[in-house]
Write a structure and sequence with these properties.
By secondary structure, the protein is α+β, with helices and mostly antiparallel strands. It folds into two domains: 4-64, no CATH class; 87-117, no CATH class. It is 22% helix and 25% strand. It has three helices and three strands. Strands 2-1-3 form a three-stranded antiparallel sheet, with helices on one face. 10% of the residues are buried.
């Protein structure tokens, strides 16, 4: 087994005094794919925040074998999951950067989106 890149020992962390992780321990190997799997509210995002240094630990240690901290990019949709959009409308949203300031999409926008959807 490869040497661990990150070692967590008895880590505790949470939000506003509410513990989410308690006594968590793990060794994350270098040059390997590691999955973080669990139920909603089980601490997956908190763990990623701890690993990246965004969320401070309240107990325990996090040891990185390299300088600095790994990047942590939060990806959230600007549109609610229940917002009804077709695939074509979603692709057409990518055309908004090609229109001028305060301008509507031209007829070319939806046609261009349709072209991008063709096999």
């Amino acid at each position: 087994m490869a040497a661990s890149q990150v070692t967590l020992s008895a880590v505790a962390a949470g939000y506003l005094g509410r513990p989410v992780l308690s006594g968590f321990a793990a060794q994350i190997p270098a040059f390997a794919t590691t999955a973080v799997v669990g139920a909603n509210g089980s601490g997956k995002s908190t763990l990623l925040g701890v690993l990246s240094g965004v969320i401070p630990v309240t107990a325990g240690t996090v040891v990185h074998r390299t300088k600095g901290w790994p990047a942590f990019v939060v990806q959230r949709s600007a549109i609610a999951d229940t917002f009804p959009l077709t695939v074509r409308e979603t692709v057409a949203m990518g055309r908004w950067g090609h229109r001028g300031l305060w301008r509507r999409l031209t007829a070319h926008g939806p046609r261009s989106a349709g072209w991008r959807l063709r096999p």
